Amino acid sequence: MPSAIILLSGGLDSATTAAIAQSQGFELHALSFDYGQRHKYELAAAERVAKAIGVKQHVTMRIDLAAFGGSALTAAIAVPKNRSESEMDSGIPITYVPARNTVFLSFALGLAEVTGAADIFIGVNAVDYSGYPDCRPEYIAAFEQLANLATKAGVEGTMRFTIHTPLIALTKAEIICRGLELGVDYGLTHSCYDPDRSGHACGKCDACLLRIRGFRDAGVEDPTAYS
What we know:
globular, 5-stranded parallel β-sheet, about 10% strand, Rossmann fold, 8 helices, 5 strands
């Protein structure tokens, strides 16, 4: 089985992406990040998902993006609540973490070189919510080019790195339906940006609202525990 790196946040999208990669015959090395995010409950979800799908390796990197701040996820900035779809689609939201996917993909690239994995999977999506600049197809294409220019394996031609984004053109409902076809247990996942102390989802942040709408549009019950 060829190896692949999967960026596993513990959310709905990354769990579905992992299932897709596995269905394509890849042996997975999962990579999660404790980066100073307020919603650290997602790390426990990542562990649950990794165990459920049976990855070969699960690494959790600890980096402190909270030292920079600049985001409602890493600083003392209120997480927006009850925003309309039009509000979500206008501009880059305060929950954007500066350069996060670039940082994450760089670590994934390093792990890929060490493990001999030419394939990296990331669950970015540009349909339901295109506010994040590092979720766009042109960004992924640029990083893939960088990956093959900036690595020993790429320069020597021993590997050609590919960044896979199987969800990038799917709606949230389509993502959920695809995951259910592959046996994803969404009860293991966590999406909320601002959970309470017990880990219950707020039901009002952008991530929760998109998740709720996705399950509703898919005609499937959402297993999330909301506060």
